[in-house]
Design brief:
Keywords: Membrane, Transmembrane, Transmembrane helix. With 184 residues, the protein is of the alpha+beta class. It has helices at 2-23, 40-48, 50-53, 145-148, 150-174, and strands at residues 27-36, 66-71, 80-85, 89-98, 102-111, 115-125, 131-140.
Length: 184
């Protein structure tokens, strides 16, 4: 009889979680900006080419064992960076489109939960030899697990985007053409 009560309680909890997930946000939007003391073309190059991108981006931890792969032609649609890490899971970025002041990536997080998103960048001339960089990341959360984990995922992504912009700024402003590893 006790087993039936435990089973019934478990079913009630699962049903409640499914109902709660219906009312949680089904997506997220993050927008952050930074001013970098380098020209637009220079900064765009550090974002659009994954060989530079991996030196500053937030999905390339300094201390975590990882697997990563870069494929495609640098700064061209189809250029792709994929990763698999113990701490942050697995995912990939694929360059979808690029023009003189914008870069658009498809972002896919495969683990801990599958999330598809857009990762868009805008570069504006700002003063003399400075660039205002705006990073927008937005996507949807799958029902029900993604929505239940949505707050935590949004918070973590927001922190990673903020850290990524800070690291991009440091990388660009310290770059002298010889940096081969993360020194900042």
């Amino acid at each position: 009889m006790t087993f039936l009560y435990i089973l019934a309680a478990l079913v009630v909890v699962i049903v409640l979680l499914l109902i709660i997930a219906l009312f949680l946000p089904d997506g997220y939007f993050i927008e952050k900006s930074a001013i970098i003391k380098k020209p637009c073309d220079f900064v765009m190059d550090k974002v659009a080419d994954f060989h530079n991108h991996i030196l500053w981006n937030p999905w390339q931890p300094k201390d975590s064992p990882s697997e990563s792969n870069i494929t495609g032609i640098s700064k061209r649609p189809g250029h792709k960076y994929s990763w698999k890490r113990t701490k942050i899971g697995a995912g990939c970025l694929t360059l979808r489109d690029i023009d003189e002041r914008h870069i658009h990536f498809d972002f896919e997080l495969l683990k801990p939960v599958k999330v598809s998103a857009r990762d868009n960048w805008q570069f504006e001339e700002w003063g003399t030899d400075e660039t205002k960089v705006t990073w927008l990341n937005f996507g949807t959360f799958p029902y029900p697990i993604g929505r239940l984990m949505g707050y935590m995922l949004h918070k973590n992504l927001k922190q990673q985007v903020t850290q990524g912009l800070m690291d991009l700024k440091k990388f660009c402003e310290l770059y002298d053409g010889t940096i081969a590893v993360r020194h900042f």
